[in-house]
Specification:
Elements lengths: L1 H14 L2 H24 L9 H13 L24 H14 L1 H11 L5 E9 L3 E8 L2 E11 L7 H19 L23 H19 L7 H10 L1 H28 L4 H14 L1 H16 L1
Antiparallel strand pairs: 1-2, 2-3
Length: 301
Amino acid sequence: MLYKGYWRRVRDIREGDLHSRKAGFLLLRDCALSGARERVSAGSKTSHTDPFVTKEKEQEKKSGRPTQMRNRKHGNNSSSSGAAEIPPNTSREICASLNTKNPEAVVNYVRYWGSIASADKARIVSVDLAGFDMEYTVFSDPATRHELRIQFKQPASSVEDAEMKLKDMENEAYKMLNLDIDRNYKAPGTKTPPNVHLPKAWIIGATAGAWVAAYIVIFLDAALLPPEVATFRKIVGMDVLQRMLTAWVILHSIEAVVGIGLCLYARMPVHTVLLWPLIIVLFGTPSLQNCLKVAVRHAIS
């Protein structure tokens, strides 16, 4: 029954695509080694060589680089120094920590060390002293999971050494994929935006009209007012109009104090700190919003 299943898998692999062949080679290796163990346990003295290990070596010679995917059970995961392997529980803890705390760094492993720029999401499956296994998806096909094996440059000697190598690889990938940009650089001929500027024209017109209307209604002599305006002032009452104007001035003054605080926080020049409160008192909230934008830009730069 073992050999019937063996040759049936061989036939399926020959008829399948390249991806299924890679997976099939691993299955056939397990099948062949299982048959060898059965013969040894039965007392057979015949030797058995693994043809798929030889096949992988031939592929490595042709391509000039080691194959990415290896069977975890029979693959070459041990270090050359003969150090003990990472316990499964420890490997799972390392993977869980990397996958949950810094998923962006995990994707960078695939994009940089795996040379797969189209990687969208990724996770580390297992870690050993020779490297680590990963699963990832690409933007064009998010439903399909791909497997990837990344080797350390030199095998790790301990769990701590493996974690250090992972951190070093993470830092290198981050530096290469996220190049530092000089935010203070300005191209020749670039005009620096002013630290003080007025609001839009329609806001200036509406605010100026409101100030003029308040002055006319409250402070101008009744004999000089149009009949409609005089009637309106008589109905509303001078006390109410004066209280409304006072509340308006107090509100704008509070906004001006907030603007001074923003300017001081952003460490703007003295003349800027003096001009912004005056503009905010005249035009109110729209000018305070502009002051906030300028202060944030100035603080970042």
